[in-house]
Amino acid sequence: MKSLIPKLCLLIGLFFVCPLLSAQTPADSLFPVRGFCIGSPRPDRVDEFVTFIEKELAPRQVNTLILRVDFNYEFKSHPELRDSVALSKRDVRKLVRACQANRVRLIPQINLLGHQSWASQTHNLLRVYPQFDETPHVKMPEKYQWPNADGLYCKSYCPLHPEVHKVVFDLVDEICDVFEADAFHAGMDEVFYIGHDKCPRCSGRDKAELFAGEVKTIRDHLAQKNRTLWIWGDRLLDGKTTGLGMWEASMNNTHRAIDLIPKDVLICDWHYERPDQTPVYFAMKGLKVMTCPWRMPKNAVLQAQDMVKFRATATNAMKGNFYGMIQTVWSDAGSFLDEYYDRTKADDTGNTASNCFRALYEEMNRQVSTK
Fold first, then answer.
1. Which part of the chain is the Glycoside hydrolase family 20 catalytic domain (predicted)?
2. Other CB atoms within 10 A of residue 345 CB
3. 258, exposed or middle or buried, with CB in 10 Å at 0-12, 13-18, 19+?
4. Which of 91, 79, 97 shows the shortest CA–CA distance to 180?
């Protein structure tokens, strides 16, 4: 009888593993992540976006959907931070069910650390809790212009404020629960205000250590519930040495954080004007990386080809770090749908998010079909 136990265990293991193995597709070997990132729909566009998931994302074998939710949800933990019109739990359930039915991994995003304001508007967190502001002395202008004397692009919260994470993590936990998510995207891109010399907590501290510390704090919180952290990668690149500059990389020395953050943080590497090959750098640092185009179809095609090449020529140790592609859309879902279905006037150059999305997935599917 004892001799049968190992055989039974093997059979039980194969019973559970084989369906997972058979679920692998040829696309998985080239692009483990085939993603789409967009602002979450407003309540009156949810049903239309569900149809988009079913009719456009699923047929293209999109397997990951990142929804930038921010405050577009009827939070119970902090109702004071809700947008005036926000998704209900019932709305979110529709999105979750549509993704589950089409084998799409759904990952919510709330911008953490940076992007706490835009133009002349302070977003909900710092508007309600101004004590969290890294730079309270910088006042929001009536009319925003860049460049400006304050170096204001977007506000940041202070990562060392003793009360900020209690509020932030309430939101993160609630949104992950309602989205039934096993991963969370924290944004963390374009952080210009960090370690400011007038902040009583951050002044004089190493900006790379501050940034890495915030990444680790968020990562460790998510890990308590077996969730993984995804972030944009620009703050981990040296803008001066690479020539990438202050937008797609860091000019305030946060780039050294790449050697300080946990290796299980997933990196979304965005480059929109040039198809720069920085995924190799992230992969060499032991981080899983996805390339993220936006609105230039030619660049997206080149970036998809590069991803295939990277995986084909990488060592066994690095191959798994080249993790795929994510089409990014920098509008809400409703505006994108209007563009996608030709309800709004298109850019004469053809450089639009919808054209980029089509071109990217045509190239990805072409790559899969030729292998």
1. 84-332
2. 7
3. buried
4. 97
Q: Give pLDDT tens digits for 166-212.
A: 999 999 999 999 999 999 999 999 999 999 999 999 999 999 999 99
Q: Where are the domains of the chain?
A: 33-370
What value does the mean pLDDT take over residues 31-41?
Answer: 98
Q: What is the pLDDT of residues 206-258, one digit of tens each?
A: 999 999 999 999 999 999 999 999 999 999 999 999 999 999 999 999 999 99
Token code pair at residue 329: 């859309």
Contact 269, 278 (CB under 8 A): yes
Contact (Cβ atoms closer than 8 angstroms) between residue 40 and residue 333: yes
Strand partners, 317: none
Copy the structure tokens of residue 301: 């095609």
18 SS3 class? helix
Sign of the torsion formed by the C-alpha atoms of 254, 259, 265 and 269: positive
> Can you name the residues that pair with 228 across neighbouring β-strands?
183
Region 33-370: CATH code:
3.20.20.80
Q: Which residues pair with 66 in a beta bridge?
A: 37, 107
pLDDT above 90 for 84: yes
